[in-house]
Structures are given as structure tokens and as C-alpha cells.
Amino acid sequence: MQLRIVVLPGDGVGPEVTEQAVRVLREVANIQGHNFHFEEHPAGGVAIKQSRTPLPRATLDACLAADAVLLGAIGSPEFDHLSPAEKPEAGLLLLRKSLGGFANLRPIVSYPALAAASPLRREIVEGADLLFVRELLGGLYFGEPRGIMRNGNSTAFNTMRYSVGEIERVARVAFEAAMKRQCKVTSVDKANVLETSQLWRETVTRVAADYPAVALDHLYVDAAAMHIITNPKRFDVILTENLFGDILSDEAAVISGSLGMLASGTVGGAVDLYEPVHGSAPDITGRNAANPLGAIASAAMLLRHTAQLEDEAADIEAAIQAVLSAGYRTRDIADGILGHIVSTNEMGQLVTEALAEFADMRHAYHAV
Ligand code: IPM
Ligand code: MG
Hints:
Blueprint: E1 2-10, H1 14-32, E2 35-40, H2 45-51, H3 57-64, E3 68-73, H4 88-99, E4 103-109, H5 122-125, E5 129-135, E6 147-149, E7 155-157, H6 164-179, E8 184-189, H7 195-208, E9 215-220, H8 221-230, E10 237-240, H9 242-256, E11 265-267, E12 272-274, H10 293-306, H11 310-325, E13 328-329, E14 340-341, H12 344-367
Parallel strand pairs: 1-2, 1-3, 3-12, 5-10, 8-9, 8-10, 13-14
Antiparallel strand pairs: 4-5, 4-11, 6-7, 11-12
Helix pairs in contact: 1-10, 1-12, 6-7, 8-9, 10-11, 11-12
The chain binds 3-isopropylmalic acid (IPM) and magnesium ion (MG).
């Protein structure tokens, strides 16, 4: 299989983690005889420094011509003084909009080997397996009008806006995903206060009628925030709008033990976009200490969703599990009890080596 992957390392720890994800993908290509072509481009703060825009035309054109985009992280405290429209993050939002993917998939699992790394009790997290389907192109992130009116008593405003069409298309992604999982969708909104949520709830309920095999329930976002950490096993697929999904998915990271573990993939548009959920982590940048597993797991999602290479994706995930089970930890997932602390680079190498073993085993199995 031939795949053109544009890599946007971005800011902070982005380059360190994407390097490991690319290394793993190269190993997959090598083992399975695929032809993956990688092309790197600047985006975010690094691009602002080079060309005074967070999303240069050449970067966007390359992304639009790719089969998939793998992004590291965007954002840096250096640009804190800029307005949101000028920050590195504006480049990421423009990229998302331009690629057109509206459904951001964020799987969250409790890895057995990592249960002790979670601040939550083992019996609460063990066995938890959730999928966030976060609407990614609407809501407060993109709603107009927005701005600041500066005067004596300055006023700032953002607009939360959703159309039926926007809600329906992301709801369908959630129901389709649920059909392949535990057949349960929990839609999260604030329908007791917001009209956007009222329309959200009505629309999701209507779409649900097309999926009789899937059980639908609704939660207000405040209650959902509590249930996610008190009883994560009550969830299968969580469908929600842009900002609620942003907040709740960071919260849910404690189930996996660390934000560094989480992967994401954005689908439904012209080109799929894969990025770890974590940010640029300026506090540990350049120290070879970041956890690359979120980026590596995002690479696995790329193979699964964009290239339909299910076996290869599963091998990467099995390799991650194996490395964790063998006790290797980056600092963010060290639980103080067991484990060898390894660097970003070493973690990438360990996964690459484990992957080769898994692929060998699968070959041997098929040969029998
Ligand atoms: C995320 C991030 C982004 C978001 C930022 C960097 C704009 O927090 O992907 O969750 O808010 O979507
Ligand atoms: Mg976020």
C-alpha cells in the first residue's frame, strides 16, 4: 500500500513525539512492504517565526494533497501576548477547517499495566474503554460574531452556533462507531440552559431512530464531568460539541494515566488529521522526556481509519501494551512502584522493537 503522509511536527515536544511516531510507521512499512512517503512542513509557532503565519500556504497545500496528516503539537508561551486570531493555535484551527474533518475521535482506555498510574482507584478505571466523538468544526471555536470591544468597560464575546446539518453528520459518526463497539451513545450537552444544546439533543434523538441497535442517553455536561471520573465504565461512545469535548477529553485522560497516552483522529473531511491530544508541553520541551505513546497511537489510528490497515494498527497497539507490560514508563506515567523510566527516544525504540516481534508472530501464525 502506498501512503503519502504529511508530518507537521509543530511546537514544543511536537517534533520529539512525531519523530517516534514516524519511526514506528517506517518500521510498519518496512515489515509489511508498504510504501509510506513522509513529508515534513512547518505549522504553528515555528511557522510564525519562519514566515509570520502559523499555517503557510505551502504547508496547507501539502496537507491537502496528502492521504493523511500527522501533527505533533501547536502552541508556545512565547506567543501568549498575541490575540487568539494571531496565535499558533489559529493555524491549527484553520488547518482543521481547511481539511474539513468534523468528527474528532478520541479513544480512552485503561491499560491494565497502567492502572496504578491513574490517580483514580484501580477498580474504577480497570476495564474502562470510551470513545469521544467530539464535533470539531463548530461551536465557540468558530462561531461568528466574535471579538473584543475595547472601551471603558471592555466587552468580549464569542458565539456558540450549531446547525442541524453539523449536528447530524457528527452524530452519525458516533452511532456508526457505537455499532462496532458496545452499541451505546451518551450525548453530552447543556440543554437546560443553551439553545444550541436544545437543537443538539433534538437532532441526536432523531438520528438515533436510524440506529435501533444503539442505546442513546443524554447527560448534561456538568454531570458528565462527574460520571467520567466516578464511573467511567458506564460509557461507551460520548458524543459532544467542540468545547465540551475539548474539556472532557482532557479530564478523561486521568483514566489512561496521562494526557501523553491519548491519540486522536479527525475524519469526515477531504484529508484525515491525526494528532495526540496533549499540547506542546513547554515545561519539558527539548529534554527527551515527553511521552510519545499518544503520537504513536495516533499513527495507529491513521493506519486503521485512513488506510484500513487494521492488522498493522492492532500490531502497533499491541506493541504499546507489551512495552507498558514490560514495565517501561516515561516520566508522566511513572507510578512510583514499578518500571524503568525511559526517554522519548527509548520509548519509541522499544515500541519499534516490540512491533517487529508482533509482526513476526503474526507471520508465523499465518504460515501455519
Ligand atoms: C486539543 C487542543 C486544541 C483544541 C488547541 C491546541 C487549539 O486543546 O486538540 O484538544 O482546543 O482543540
Ligand atoms: Mg484540548
